[in-house]
Amino acid sequence: MSDQVDAYLTRIGIAAVPQAGPAELAQVQAAHRQAIPFENLDIPLGRGVRCDPASIFDKLVTGRRGGYCFEHNRLLSDMLGAMGFTSRILLARVLLGDPPEATPRTHCLVLVRFGDGDWIADAGFGGSYAPPMRLADGETSVSGDGAQHRLTRIGENGDLPGSWLLERKGPKLATDGRVQSDDAWEKQFAFDTVQVADADLALGNHWAATHPTSRFTNVTVASICLSDGFASMVDRQLTVWRKGEGAERNLIATPEDYRETLASCFGIALSAVEIANLPLF
């Protein structure tokens, strides 16, 4: 795995293998999310999404593409493990918009264990960004865009919608548009800490990539974290938000503009033929 670790660290702009500590975890996650975009382009292009480690590494690192949560967080967990961290995947239910019924477990995140307790990390939530957090009731954090995040223990493993809830309060334009308020706590996702098998990941990934009610079969999305903000493109609506500057919003008018925006804002290189095959224009 040493060659893969070197390639991954080069991809995210870190010069040397970090120590296995909470501060280093935060450094890796931030660098990952600022270098590797969140995107679902292979789904509207009809290619599907594979979530085995080899395919993910080939796509996100070697191929310099992006992906969604099952790709990002599988890559993050694998690379953390290869660098000496103790980590494993958890499954979560996305609660943005406060749905009336329990949603399927179609988000994943990473549990990281240190000597003094567990932390959660997430390089694959496309809607916004939350730094790694100690897994403790009432734990809070602040991201570079100024948003606050908090964890609440809401039940036991096996309870619906989960045993832990992550909420966010902050600028709504520093998200992918699903957040409704700048100053209210809003649910992001709920999760528990039960063991997750590869088959569980494959099932969640299959639902997310193929189900007619999945977000990813209905919209074309890309996002990337900035050190002081967030950039997202939902279908043809581009929003770039920076702390202290607010948001710039533009509707992408032509396929060529879309192609150039993917490259300049998100580091994604698609051909003109691929852009033409997206259901956007």
Strand order of the largest sheet: 5-4-3-2-9-8-7-6
**Using only CA atoms, what is the Rg?**
18 Å
Overall 3D form: globular
Uncertain residue segments = none
Q: Tell me the total number of β-strands.
A: 13
The biggest beta sheet is recorded as: 8 strands, antiparallel
DSSP summary: helix tally? 7
Looking at the chains present, what oligomeric state does this protein adopt? single chain
Following the backbone from N to C, one meets helices and strands in this order, namely: HHEHHEEEEEEEEHEEEEHH
Q: Into which percent range does the helicity of residues fall?
A: 25-40%
Percentage of residues in strands = 25-35%
Terminal Cα separation, in Å?
42 Å
Return the average pLDDT rounded to an integer.
Answer: 96
Number of domains: 1
Query: What is the CATH architecture assignment?
Result: 2-Layer Sandwich
Structural class: alpha+beta
